[in-house]
Amino acid sequence: MIGPNEALDIVLGKTRRLEPAEVPLLEAVGGVLAEAVPSDLDLPPFDKSAMDGYAVRAADVARLPADLAVAEELPAGTAPTLAAAEGRCAKIMTGAPVPAGADLVVPVEDTERLPNGRVRVLRVNSERTHICLRGEDVRKGAVVAPEGRVIRPAEAGLLASVGRKCVSIYRRPTVAVLATGEELVPISAVPGPGRIRNANSWSLRASCLRAGIAADDLGVARDVQRDLAAKIAKGLRRDVLVVSGGVSMGEWDLVPKVFEELGVQIHFASVSMKPGKPTVFATREGGLVFGLPGNPVSTLVTFRLLVWPALRKMMGHPDPAPAPLDAALASDVTSKEGRTWFMPVILRREGSQWLAEPVTTHGPADLVGFSRADALAVVEPGTHKAGERVQALPLEI
């Protein structure tokens, strides 16, 4: 049985980055650029005011107070018609082009409006011109967003500012989710004796959505080999298939057997971790196949540890498995089993460090308890005292 770090290494070693695809800008948000994007113009494209105030010549306000004639008003979006000249200024709004000859914008709060179209300058900050110079952010042709950059809202605005309605990102994988088990009923049904609602399909698809992927729902497969094989075969047409349940050692745990019958190559079938020991990872023709434990908490933990990094690598993320946080245990913890325990915790900031407060749960089926956690603390077997350092993996992915 392999450890969780080795399992992750195997998964990422078998995962390939997908090919680029050009998509509309808003659809690219959360994706990773597959191209370097240059600017099609200088930014700013002209000298512009950074303040509401008056565009003046510095020579005219060398001695204060200074009374100047207001030659014109320049709202944002208008072009100056007059150059600044001796004794003459322009009233200007933030973002408006600065008239030729003006080398200083005096904020409106440092002035006093006079009758007959004049203004009195009362104060000048000699250290700031309040002018954004043409091209000071970037010159035309220079790269504004390099290949490998994740497109966040800031990047979306930046790409829009250089005229990119569409961009090339590494393609998001197609994903299918399949739940297994005779005990599962739809969420709209009232469970009868021995039955439970199908939570796993919803939590897995929600996890994919958090990664920017709309996963297909293949429904629920009965614990019958023929039904299971048909649904798994359908899921194998996607880049990634995630199956929950049916991967343990019980008589009705048929998923690994069906994988083998369908030509799926299994790379590991158990991991020394708690929860999530009966986790299967396999590949077929370049696609990834995950068989996750059926208990709802185990499903979410193994998705976070193994599936999420694989999806990130396929989408071109430079760090598919970001480094965990360093935290201190808030209380004593004992792990009696000989496996790495991914313990649900609440992270809170105390001074300069993170504290990991254990969350009480009733085992790998307790979604109620688990839903209170915002991270997983990595706890090795043994007794650990409050204050001991642990790694913490945030669940808010």
Describe, in plain words, how this protein is organized in 3D.
The protein is α/β, with parallel strands linked by helices. It has four domains: 4-18 and 172-314, Molybdenum Cofactor Biosythetic Enzyme, Chain A; 24-43 and 138-170, Molybdopterin biosynthesis moea protein, domain 2, CATH 3.90.105.10; 48-132, Molybdopterin biosynthesis moeA protein, domain 3, CATH 2.170.190.11; 325-394, Beta-clip (Beta Barrel). Helix content is 18%, strand content 32%. The protein is built from seven helices and 28 strands. It has helices spanning 4-13, 153-161, 200-210, 225-235, 255-261, 296-314, 367-370; strands at 20-24, 37-38, 48-49, 53-56, 66-74, 88-92, 104-107, 111-114, 118-121, 131-132, 143-145, 166-170, 175-180, 184-185, 196-197, 216-221, 240-244, 265-268, 273-274, 280-284, 287-292, 325-329, 333-335, 340-350, 353-358, 375-379, 382-384, 389-394. The strands form eight sheets. It has a six-stranded mixed sheet, with no helix packed on it. A hairpin with a 3-residue loop joins strand 8 (111-114) and strand 9. Helix 1 (4-13) runs parallel beside helix 6 and helix 3 packs parallel to helix 6. It is elongated and about 90 Å long. The two termini are 28 Å apart.
Short description:
The chain folds into 4 domains: 4-18 and 172-314, MoaB/Mog-like domain (Molybdenum Cofactor Biosythetic Enzyme, Chain A, 3-Layer(aba) Sandwich); 24-43 and 138-170, Molybdopterin biosynthesis moea protein, domain 2 (Alpha-Beta Complex); 48-132, Molybdopterin biosynthesis moea protein, domain 3 (Molybdopterin biosynthesis moeA protein, domain 3); 325-394, MoeA, C-terminal, domain IV (Beta-clip, Beta Barrel). It contains 7 helices and 28 strands. The chain has helices at 4-13, 153-161, 200-210, 225-235, 255-261, 296-314, 367-370, and strands spanning 20-24, 37-38, 48-49, 53-56, 66-74, 88-92, 104-107, 111-114, 118-121, 131-132, 143-145, 166-170, 175-180, 184-185, 196-197, 216-221, 240-244, 265-268, 273-274, 280-284, 287-292, 325-329, 333-335, 340-350, 353-358, 375-379, 382-384, 389-394.
